[in-house]
Amino acid sequence: MRALAARAGFADALIVNTCAVTGEAEAQARQAIRRAAREQPGRPILVTGCASQIAPGKWAGLPGVVRVIGNGQKLDPAAWSAEVAPILRETPIGIAAGGATRAFLAVQQGCDHACTFCIIPQGRGPARAMPIAEAVSAVRDLATRHAEVVLTGVDLASHPELAALIRAVLREVPELARLRLSSLDPAALDEAFWALFAEEERLMPQLHLSAQHGHDLILKRMRRRHSRADLVQLSARARALRPDVALGADLIAGFPTETEEHLCAMIDLVAEAQLAFLHVFPYSARAGTPAARMPQLPMPLRRERAARLRQAGEAERSRFLASRIGQVEEVLMEAEGMGHTRHFVPVRLSSAPRGALRRARITASDGRMLIAEEAA
Question: Are 327 and 360 in contact (CB under 8 A)?
Fold first, then answer.
């Protein structure tokens, strides 16, 4: 997008890629735009992303904004140079991006589900999948510059050939050191996936689950397709196949009608399923979704419950990190003295260059990251 903007004469423009997952995400983007317009008057601002796809007029009226570009045109040169850029409904598949060490490849876009809290299908359109051959070709190209590739998607596990795609990538791109997956719907992980997870060493031992809650009644009201028992069984299965697996989850606190009992069930789930890496969100009502019409909890209560949930996650994270002390880990260095393990745990390791893969012995944990020294 930066290159397309520069080619269209917007080399100095600020590009804001908006998110519509929560009201807070939209508010932060609006604040950033207003601040930029105030601090750098005259600098053109270009807005794209899910929030602008859903309500383009709202973003076009902000100070400094000269162009609103729909998700479906992010990679279309004409959208950056045309006087009026029409808003399309579909985000392209195959967007690839990355820094010096890790790249991200979107092999799936859109969503066909109807979770009551979510507005993302309006911003990303229906589910579409990248063909296996295209994914292999894209990963092969990325592997010439990156040691690790992350396969991503709005609903990655809905890719109809996900397991076959992963196997093809690992078979056809042997030079790729590490393959990682983004967030996965627990209800969509089939037998082919679990066989793959057990057998493929270069598929990282880390799963991040789109769990959302830990009580069956709230999961039903969210219109999720899994139960609490499914999440517990999934975590047990993952550990049976790869005992050192790191599990994480997206969780929402303060969903409409949630009681203290419901919250405690979710907190208990964090420990029972050993969910060590949480993304916790206070529920955010999105206009046009069924959940926005349900009885709402006060925002201070939602935030208080989210804080308690994060505390439970921090305890599990500390426990997992402590379990790695004394282990020899493979660390991908991403900055001076810093890198990530195969479990995507941050590690402090001195005297290793950026982009290098290093064997390191874990010597300590500060509860948030690991400290290591190079191993022979």
Answer: no
Q: Is 356 left (phi over 0), alpha (psi -120 to 50) or beta?
A: beta
- Whether residues 30 and 118 share a domain: the answer is no
Closest CA to 48 of 112, 123, 127, 126: 123
CB 339 within 8 A of CB 350: no
pTM of the model: 0.86
Domain range for 16 is 2-81
Q: Which two tokens stand for residue 324?
A: 């790695």
Domain end marker among 204, 233, 266: 204
Q: What are 55-106's pLDDT values in tens digits?
A: 888 899 999 999 998 877 777 888 887 554 444 445 566 666 666 689 999 9
For tokens 């925002």, the residue is 299
Residue 222 maps to a domain: no
Please check whether residues 63 and 138 belong to one and the same domain: no
Q: Is residue 168 part of a domain?
A: yes
292-350 pLDDT, tens digit per residue, is: 999 999 999 999 999 999 999 999 999 999 999 999 999 999 888 899 999 999 999 98
Number of domains in the chain: 3
Q: Any residues with CB less than 8 A from the CB of 327 and at least 6 apart, and which?
A: 361, 362
Task: Looking at the structure, tell me whether residues 75 and 93 fall in a common domain.
Answer: no
Q: Is residue 242 part of a domain?
A: no
